[in-house]
Specification:
The protein has 307 residues and is an alpha/beta fold. Helix content is 35%, strand content 21%. The strands form 2 sheets. The protein has an 8-stranded mixed sheet, with helices on both faces. It has a two-stranded antiparallel ribbon with strand order 7-8.
């Protein structure tokens, strides 16, 4: 028998239905006045809940935490049109609504909410925690902490020509959007092809965790905003401890930006370094080590009742 109960849940965010799975622990050592902490999870760029996010949530519930794993609007099992529309501000709003929903879940201690993010959402959780102001702990693995650094990284491994091609696609999408149409490109593609991520391990890494409701396509106008999206600027506003899981062979999210955020966060930051690539942390031995480190972190930061 599983150590957790998994139930589908949904709620409205700005009129759009978001869907998630709520994992409730059957037993917990962290109960205070009948309530236990909750960890809210969402995926990275173009990711959906069923692409290994549930694996983390299930482990957290087995360890005694509630876990709420949700899909952003336009992706996975959540509603929203057009599909595959990536919008940074909309996703941050989805985070805020998911946090509010988690606080109202049966058995959840509203004073002990934590956030879990990976890749692009590894940056989102920093911003979401800072904007909320009452989050108790954050775990961020393989994080995209600085859009400017991430874009420069694309130029480094794919060349200036690829940067220009991506920019042209982004402009086309931006021009089509007011007409009610969208222009999409591949999320991952082989080196030399058009795609948001074209590092040598992008296709094999992403398809290794892909699920049936994942689609290798994404709108592109947001790329014009990418250099301006810099979660690293929120480091000093973090209201809580943060665990930063850094993939030392990361080809997508610059390691230097994650290290820099940790430095800015000071004593609130704890770093775990893994000698793996960006996509390796979701599976196998790297997953086992990362999830064990995260459970230890959440146990330390959320185990006691809030003062």
């Amino acid at each position: 028998m599983s150590n957790s109960l998994a139930d589908p849940v949904e709620w409205l965010c700005h009129g759009t239905t978001l869907r998630a799975i709520h994992y409730a622990p059957r037993h917990s050592d962290f109960v205070h006045q009948g309530r236990a902490p909750c960890i809210v999870l969402a995926h990275g760029l173009g990711g959906v809940r069923t692409a290994r996010l549930d694996a983390y949530a299930e482990r957290f519930a087995q360890a005694g935490f509630h876990a709420l794993a949700f899909d952003y609007r336009f992706f996975g099992q959540s509603d929203g049109q057009p599909r595959q529309n990536f919008n940074i501000r909309a996703q941050l709003d989805d985070w805020a609504s998911a946090i509010a929903f988690a606080r109202e879940l049966p058995g959840v201690d509203a004073g002990r909410i934590a956030l879990w993010g990976s890749s692009f959402s590894g940056g989102h959780v920093v911003v979401a925690a800072a904007e909320d102001g009452h989050i108790q702990a954050v775990s961020s693995q393989g994080p995209m902490m600085d859009g400017r650094a991430a874009f420069l990284n694309v130029l480094r491994y794919a060349g200036v020509g690829q940067g220009l091609r991506l920019s042209a696609h982004a402009v086309l999408d931006a021009l089509m959007s007011p007409l009610g149409k969208r222009h999409t490109i591949a999320l991952v593609a082989a080196p030399g092809e058009v795609g948001v991520m074209t590092s040598a391990d992008a296709v094999s890494g992403y398809t290794a965790i892909a699920s049936e409701d994942w689609h290798n396509t994404i709108t592109s106008s947001w790329l014009l905003q990418l250099p301006l999206y810099r979660p690293i600027r929120y480091a000093r506003r973090l209201p809580c401890p943060i665990l930063i899981g850094i993939c030392m062979q990361d080809s997508v999210a610059p390691v230097s930006a994650a290290e820099a955020l940790a430095k800015r966060a000071g004593a609130r930051a704890q770093i775990c370094r893994y000698d793996v690539g960006h996509f390796d942390i979701y599976v196998g031995a790297a997953f086992e080590q990362a999830v064990a480190d995260q459970i230890a972190f959440f146990t330390e930061k959320l185990g006691a009742s809030p003062h």
